[in-house]
Structures are given as C-alpha cells and as structure tokens.
Amino acid sequence: MDTIVLATNNKGKIRELSVMLEPFGLKVKSLSEFPEIGDIPETGETFLENAFIKARTVAQITGLVTVADDSGIEIDALDGRPGVYSARFAGEDCDDHANNEKMLAQMKNVPDEKRTGRYRCVMAASAPNGTEIHTDGAYEITVGHGYKGRGGFGYDVIVIDPDHNCHVAELDPEVKNGKSHRGNAMKKLLQLWPDFWEKATK
Q1: Which of 21, 53, 161, 199 has the least CB density, counted as fewest CB within 10 Å?
Q2: Gyration radius from the chain CA atoms
Q3: Alpha-carbon distance 156 to 158, whole Å?
C-alpha cells in the first residue's frame, strides 16, 4: 500500500481527509509520526502560500508525497478576517474556545443579515520530485449568537449552515464532508490525483 503524509497534527482534519483518500488505497500518516520535523512556521500571507510551505517542507524531509491544507474562516463584517490567522485569532497560544469567544464578541452588534462569511481552504500536494498541484474550496456560513453542537472542530460550534438551518457542529460528519470547504477542495484534488500520482511517482 502506498503511503502519503497529511501535513497536520489536527485529528479532525486527519479523520476527515483519511476517509476521502481511502478509495485510492493510500495509507495516511500524520505529522505526529515524524516528530523530528517539529513546527513548520506558516509565514505566508495567503492560504496558498502556507499550504505549499507545509507540503514542500514535509515532502522533502520524509521523501513521501505530502498533502497539506491551509484553511480558515472569512467573515464579511470583519473585512475577511481572521483569514490566515483563524487558528490564532485570539493570540498565538490560544485555543478554539478563545477564538470563538473573540469572534462572538466582535460580532455581538452585527445584525443577522450581515453575519455572512465562509470557510475557505486551499489544498496543496507536493512530491519529492517537484510535482505539485493545488485546489481550493469554500463553504458559505453565517455566524450564530452562541454555541450549539458537539461535532466538528474550530469555529463549527458557533457558525450556522444556512441550508440546514443548524450549527455546523450539529451536522452528521458525512453531511459536513459533502459540503465543507476542505471537502470541496479535496474533491477537486482527487479529480487531479491519478495524473498527479503518475507524475509524482515516476
């Protein structure tokens, strides 16, 4: 079985993406299996730059094809913030709860019709031989007024899927994967995968 690396330690991402890669007969490893790599500074100013920084770094160190994503949430009322800073919206050492609290506080006086935004994801695949591809995906949401649901991760407990009229954290994982920004980006990546894999493993 061929092995690839998902350049993340986020268990939610690993679980979500591993399921989508299973049909290709790929064994998926996470960064936790390569402790020697350590933290990879995400110094890019865009999701695309950060995704490729991670994918290229891990591919060169491990010698394995690597898939990385950079994703975040863009809120229209906040001029697209927090964007690439979504994971550290409340500070460098913050957790999901701190980020959610800051988001709710900043959106406190924003009317419902202006609480729109989206999750955005850019996914990049890089091979040690230099072969690369990238895709992107989006998932339109609105910001709620509090917490609901126990599923998902990140901002899922405070944002609403307008099509299902419930918080994203309340959705069945299969439903979320079918709509999510990461799922959309991965679907596009998988369409390109056979040609990419042929070139990546030459």
Answers
A1: 199
A2: 17
A3: 6
- pLDDT, the chain, mean: 93
The CATH code of the domain that includes 79 is 3.90.950.10
Query: Which pairs count as long-range contacts for 19-28, CB under 8 Å and 24+ apart, including other chains?
Result: 19/177, 20/177, 20/183, 20/186, 20/187, 20/190, 21/190, 24/190, 24/193, 24/197, 25/1, 26/1, 26/2, 27/1, 27/2, 27/3, 28/3, 28/4
Strand partners, 42: none
Catalytic residues: 70
Residue range(s) defining the domain that contains residue 134: 2-200
Q: How is 39-68 classified by DSSP, letter by letter?
A: ------SSHHHHHHHHHHHHHHHHSS-EEE
Tokens 């091979």 correspond to 127
Cβ contacts of 40 within 8 Å, gap of 6 or more: 7, 53, 54, 57, 58
Residue 1 has pLDDT above 70, yes or no: no
Please state whether beta strands 159-161 and 166-167 pair in parallel, antiparallel, or not at all (unpaired).
antiparallel
What CA–CA distance (Å, rounded) separates 130 from 49?
Answer: 16
d(CA 5, CA 181): 20
Buried b (16+ CB within 10 A) or exposed e, 66-105: bbbbbbbbbbebbeebbbbebbebbeeeeebeebbbebee
Q: Summarize pLDDT for 135-163 with one digit per residue, the tens.
A: 999 999 999 999 999 988 899 999 999 99
The number of domains in the chain is 1
